[in-house]
Amino acid sequence: MQSEIVSRKRRSRIPVWAYYAAILVALAVIVRVTHDRSVQHHNPLQGNHEQAPAALAAAVQKLPANEQLPFVLNLAGSDHTRASEGLRYAIVDWVGERYVLNPGKPRTIPPPTLAFLETFLQDEDSVVRMRALEVIHEDTDKTGLYYLLCGLQDEDPWVGEDAGQLLAQWMTRNSHNPIRFQLVPGLIAGLQSKDSNVVQFCTVTLAAALGNNWHVSRLSAPAKRSAITAKWLNWWKMNSAKWAMTPPFNDIKPVTPTHTDTVGRFYAEGVSGPPFSNADLSGHVTLVNVWGMGCGPCIAEMPSFIKLYNLYKPQGLRVIGAPENGISDRHSILKWCKENGIDYPQVNANSQLRYRFGSIEDVPVTLLVDRQSRVIRIWQGGPRPLYAYEPAITAALEGKI
């Protein structure tokens, strides 16, 4: 009987190393949960494009009317370093709603505030740039139209499409406004865009400005659309020398994003390959694509990232995929990546990574980080074509950003 008890004790004895392992695992879980809670309870004003506007509106409502605008402008600071990209969007949106888009209360943006808004046209987040274009355009014809023409040449085709649509809408409402003739050179320049939608908006707006029918539907065959574009370019070749231009329309050029955000500390588990942290960013140009297996736009733009990786890897570009549920869905993610020729590393898009890269909730989101660990471009949504990413990537690799 005694030998049986001893035998049972031996069988139930747990090795000492197992106790230590269990303690280490528990500590890791506590650290992870504590950090995740701090992420989940961060200041909502520093949230994403959906969280920050609501938080800003709630904060402003508590203030007297004469303190509201100074409070909003002060949130960003003179160089915007105090504000996340979500808050920067919220600031532009609030000014637009307060001074421009509020029905029944015709107002104009105060000049210092307008100059402040113009700085957001240099934001690395194209969503912020688009909102700034919309607000400035609604406030003033001359300045707004000038920036829309510049927007046609933005490196992000989504910004160009937004600018083209706003120009077409303005022309529909102002087909007899003399300023329309000042738009012609900028619209002609927009015909050089690689984005077919931008070109389409330009042809429609040109036709309305000059009173002819030189435009076709976006559903028309590419050859027919190309013929219309060629017709406009030939017309401009014969008429450009005699076209009178006045400032600022005689100097249309894209607004280059210059604002950056420094990435904070984060740690993401490896899905394929090693883990990924902020320490891995220093000294490298890194494209981070946050995506999901069930996201159609994410899947649709994967070929662009494969091509970018193959094209620019020799020059030093790193591409990191960050799938949602990277750990729990690891097997299916690895299988899918192998079947689709995705051989760049994948890491888990955990709460730390998503928070440090802009409180990411919806996918896809793609970010470009330079050698100084600064986010220099943010592309919300997708899919985008290859050429949307190349200007910033080549500039970063060449040290021009």
What report would you give on this structure?
- The chain is α+β, with helices and mostly antiparallel strands and 401 residues long.
- It has two domains: 46-242, Leucine-rich Repeat Variant, CATH 1.25.10; 263-397, Glutaredoxin, CATH 3.40.30.
- The chain has helices at residues 2-12, 16-40, 51-61, 65-76, 85-99, 111-118, 126-139, 141-151, 157-173, 184-190, 196-210, 222-239, 296-300, 302-312, 330-339, 351-356, 390-397; strands at 261-262, 267-268, 270-272, 276-277, 285-291, 317-323, 346-347, 365-369, 374-380.
- The strands form three sheets. The chain has a five-stranded mixed β-sheet with strand order 1-9-8-5-6, covered by helices on one side. The protein has a two-stranded antiparallel ribbon with strand order 2-4. Strands 3-7 form a two-stranded antiparallel ribbon.
- A hairpin with a 4-residue loop joins strand 8 and strand 9.
- Helix 4 (65-76) runs antiparallel to helix 5 (85-99), helix 5 runs parallel beside helix 7 (126-139) and helix 9 (157-173) runs parallel beside helix 11.
- The radius of gyration is 26 Å and the shape is globular.
- It starts with a helix and ends with a helix.
- The model is unreliable at 1-12 and 20-41 (pLDDT under 50).
